[in-house]
Amino acid sequence: MKKIILGAICCSFGLTACDPKTLEGVLNSIPSTTQTTPLTNEEIVKGLKEALRVGAQAAVSRTSVENGFLNDPLIRIPFPAEAQQARDWAMSKGLSNQVNTFETTLNRAAEKASAQAFQILGDAIVQMTVQDAYTILHGEKNAATSYLQRTTTTSLKQSFGPIVKKAIEEVELTKYWEPITTGYNATTMLTGKPKVNTDLQAYVLDKALVGLFTHVAQEEEKIRSNPAARINEILKKVFGSLDK
User: Fold this and answer.
1) Which residue among 59, 71, 95, 229 is least enclosed by CB atoms within 10 Å?
2) What counts of helices (H) and strands (E) characterise the chain?
């Protein structure tokens, strides 16, 4: 393209021979007519809302299906750390099946609760302001996820509470929990160790939120760093502006 332009300059001056270096300087002095159109406030807000929508939808889809938590080593909910001694005691007494079933049901409860998250996340996305969008766009790689955590955690806990409670009842979580803790607590009279009194509802709730936002953060990082993850034009335009 540059050679064609150089040739055109030669012709315009009626020259039969041109010094490429001289004409290169002339060409470089010509202002470029290609300018990146600045993003409007509307585009920035629209792009950030779309990124959050995509991330939230993907996170809910992955965590709310059967085995969404259980088979994902990144977010799988383990036996409560506060009750690890009870787990060790149960395993030593040949109760490994009960322990494994209990851990499975923990994750099932989180999977059921996660299915209800998208509406609350969606409400927070709708309420995003221009200032929020600018802060997120030029913030850390998890700035959008942090925004959702900050604006939805209270509502999610309030909404998830009854859902987790119901899920715990549906999967009969306490049926597997009580024999383990009751048996272990009986030994504390002899050992002098403290009894286990873990709040399962709070435990599952917190772990469900951690797992959900872990996947939101993964999606955000993809959109920020991988152009192929920008699945529509507004994402390409808004996040493409960060690639320059």
Assistant:
1) 71
2) 11, 0
By the 8 A CB rule, do 128 and 48 touch? yes
**Domain ranges for the chain:** 1-35, 37-240
Q: What tokens does 163 get?
A: 């859902």
Cα four-point dihedral sign 189, 194, 196, 201? positive
Contact in structure between 196 and 90 (CB atoms under 8 Å): no
3-state SS, one letter per residue, for 190-222: HHCCCCCCCCHHHHHHHHHHHHHHHHHHHHHHH
Return d(Cα 151, Cα 213) in angstroms, integer.
12
- For residue 123, the model assigns a pLDDT of 92
Report the alpha-carbon distance of residue 37 to residue 178 in Å, rounded: 63
Per residue in 111-142, pLDDT (tens digit) is 988 988 999 999 999 999 999 998 998 889 89
- Which of 146-163 are b and which e, b meaning 16 or more Cβ less than 10 Å from the residue's Cβ? bbbbebbeeebeebbeeb
Which candidate, 185, 179, 177, 165, places its Cα nearest to that of 80?
177
For 155, list phi and psi in degrees, rounded to 5: -65, -40
Nearest to 146 by CA among 130, 161, 135, 155: 135
**Which residues, other chains included, contact 135 with Cβ-Cβ below 8 Å and sequence gap of 6+?**
143, 147
